[in-house]
Write a structure and sequence with these properties.
The structure is a homodimer. By secondary structure, the first copy, chain A, is mainly alpha-helical. The first copy, chain A, is built from nine helices and no strands. Chain A starts with 15 loop residues before the first helix and ends with a helix. Chain A has a single domain, classed as Tetracycline Repressor, domain 2 (Orthogonal Bundle), CATH 1.10.357.10. Chain A is about 75% helix and about 0% strand. At the A-B interface, α6, α7, α8 and α9 of A face α6, α7, α8 and α9 of B. The structure holds a DNA duplex (30 and 30 nucleotides).
DNA sequence: CCTGTTGTTGTACGATCGTCCAACAAGCTT
DNA sequence: AAGCTTGTTGGACGATCGTACAACAACAGG
């Protein structure tokens, strides 16, 4: 039998935004632990400590939850990178260096984070709405890079191309660092990226 | 119309290696069309024109088939890149340029090809055997790049790092080109990569 | 033509998937 | 204390998943 004399609530009601966030964070943990293939509605519900039906109640479907999780995780990463840049002080080049260095720090270059990206990427090709979300987030991340480069003296007409280049190099290093952690270190990745920045910022070009 | 009333074979027996390859190619087509989520045993069997049971007969499971497909597609890409390098003639720098240019050519930088990579990447973190396969293929691709760089005069002690850098830049550009085809062009990607090679090969560094 | 080998079929099976919705209960209002 | 709103439950549902296996048939060797 159940239910003793005293009464303990079987569940707690929390406000919609908080519940939504809890589901997103649970989704991120499941993706990190079990990968894209293991991120089912039921597994996420168990992780969040709620019933499976609640996922459908807050999200159109599991794809929408994955998209929201990607946006949230990318937001977290952006915040961490922004903090690293802010802590680097006023020198433009130091800020740029801090950006790339933080991109390979533990917790950012993390195989568990990669799972969220992969789950999201797997939806980009087939779902136009997801592709649009990717375009938007990518161009936002590129805009920040353009600003950092501009502060270092990169002329306006070269900012777009150089931001694409830096973004690609950092992402490529980040990807391999996650996929083959033993092949090279985060320090090496940072060195490579910073050396590349040298060639972009040097005036004799 | 021939061979009428008598008998038409319900299926053809072909030698194991050919059937294996047919299944791999069918898997690649399904991945390209439907993405990682749609690559089920049944869908692949339909695409190959065989019964579902045959997949289990030739592969341990669908993960093994995806891994074999990745190896096969990467082999195809490597062959295309090798041909581009060979057609570039004897000049080392021209060969290196041909390598990066071909990396962004249609059929290589292709959203449909990306699906195979994503399906494979999604298995890397969880499956040690798949991680080992990735390490091997990545180091092989890096070794080729080291050779091309060495021929251009990059000293031995810098080849490893520079190969990692070029590989990351090319892969990062390739990835974004597949995910957001409208953001920048293959020509721009090639320009960025070739300009990066300039900085690596110039002797005053 | 017959026979043996074996590549191939087709289905059955249990597990798990995403979605849905009527019923329930937590907690605020009155 | 009672009522009301609504966040939440939990199971039903059909579809689809990967796998296994006995029966079948294509084809080479006799």
């Amino acid at each position: 039998m159940k239910a003793p004399a005293s009464h303990q609530p079987a569940f707690r009601r929390i406000e919609p935004d908080a519940r939504r966030l809890a589901l997103i964070e649970a989704c991120a943990r499941v993706l990190a632990r079990a990968g894209a293939a293991g991120a089912s509605v039921r597994a996420i519900a168990v992780e969040a400590g709620v019933s499976p039906g609640l996922v459908s109640h807050y999200f159109t479907g599991i794809e929408a939850l994955v998209a929201a999780t990607y946006a949230h995780v990318e937001g977290t990463v952006d915040t961490a990178l922004d903090r690293a840049v802010a802590e680097a002080g006023p020198d433009p080049r130091a800020r740029l260096d801090a950006f790339v260095t933080a991109s390979f720090a533990p917790g950012i270059a993390d195989p568990q984070l990669l799972a969220t990206w992969i789950a999201f990427w797997s939806l980009v090709t087939a779902r136009p709405a997801i592709a649009a979300q990717h375009d938007e987030q990518y161009s936002g991340s590129r805009a920040r890079l353009e600003a950092l480069l501009g502060a270092c003296g990169v002329p306006t007409e070269r900012q777009r191309r150089d931001a694409i280049a830096v973004s690609a190099l950092v992402d490529g290093l980040w990807l391999e660092l996650c996929l083959s952690p033993g092949c090279f270190t985060a320090e090496e990745a940072g060195d490579i990226a910073r050396r590349f920045l040298d060639t972009l910022i040097s005036t004799d070009r």
